[in-house]
Amino acid sequence: xxxxxxxxxxxxxxxxxxxxxxxxxxxxxxxxxxxxxxxxxxxxxxxxxxxxxxxxxxxxxxxxxxxxxxxxxxxxxxxxxxxxxxxxxxxxxxxxxxxxxxxxxxxxxxxxxxxxxxxxxxxxxxxxxxxxxxxxxxxxxxxxxxxxxxxxxxxxxxxxxxxxxxxxxxxxxxxxxxxxxxxxxxxxxxxxxxxxxxxxxxxxxxxxxxxxxxxxxxxxxxxxxxxxxxxxxxxxxxxxxxxxxxxxxxxxxxxxxxxxxxxxxxxxxxxxxxxxxxxxxxxxxxxxxxxxxxxxxxxxxxxxxxxxxxxxxxxxxxxxxxxxxxxxxxxxxxxxx
Length: 337
Known about the structure:
The structure is a single chain. This protein has about 325 residues and is α+β, with helices and mostly antiparallel strands. It folds into two domains: about 1-175, no CATH class; about 195-335, no CATH class. It contains eight helices and ten strands. The chain is flat, with a radius of gyration of 30 Å.
C-alpha cells in the first residue's frame, strides 16, 4: 500500500501542473492571437473602461523581469502572465492580467511584485535626480474555476509618516457568470467548458453520471457557440477571432474530456459547429471578394462607356459647329460644354 500511494501522488501533482499549463497557455494564445478590438473590449469589460474599439492600439509587453534579492545578492526571474498596453490619442495605459485555478491568498502580493517590476522598467527620473516616478499597471486576477476569493483583494501599505496606501486588485471568477453574461468578455468564453470538470473528477462519478455531465456540457457548448456568434454580430470580435475561439474551445474540450467515451458525441458536435462556422466564414469572405470584383468590373465598364460616349458626343459637336450650327444651339443638344 505505501508504495502504491507514493506512486499516485506525484502523478496527481503532474496532472494539476499540466492542467494549469493548459489553461495558462490557452489564455495567452487567445489574447495574443485575438484582434486588437477584441482585446480592447475585454479590458473595457473587466475594468469598466470605454476605450474606442477600432482606434485603440494594443501592445503586449515583456513578461519576464530580473529581480535582485537584497539579502543574498542573487538574481531571480519573475514571470507574469499577460502585460498589455493600450494607447491612442491622449492615453497610454498598461494592464496586468494574472490567472489562477484555485484560491491563493499570496497571489495579491505576487501581483504587486510583478507590477513593481513592470513599473520600474519604465521609470522616469527628474533632471536633478531627486525624484523617480513609476507608473503601476492596472491589475486583474482571473479565476478559471469556482473561488471563495472576494471581488477585490488588497494590500495596505503603511509608511513611517503615518500615511497608508491601499493597493486593490479586482478579481473575476469566470464560472460564477452565465454564458450570456460573459458575452461582453467573449475571449473568455472557451473557459466555460470547465463548468463540469470538478464534478467529473470526483471518485464517485460513474458512467451514468458521466453521461449526464456530457449532456450538460453539450448544452453549455451550444450556448457558448451561440454567444460567440452574437459577439461577432455585435462586432466585439471579428470573423478570425470567432474561428480562433472555436478552435481553442475544441482543443480544450478534447484535452479535458476526450479520454471519456461518454463525451464522444459532445466532441463531434463541437467539431461540427467549429467546421460549420469556419465554412460560413470562408463563404462570406469569398462572396465579399467576388462582389468586390464584380462591382469593380461594373464600375470600370460604366466609366469606360461614359468616356466613349463623351468622346462620340464631342465628335458630333465639332461636326455640327463645322456645319454652321451656333454654339448656343449646340449646347441645347449636348449636356456638356
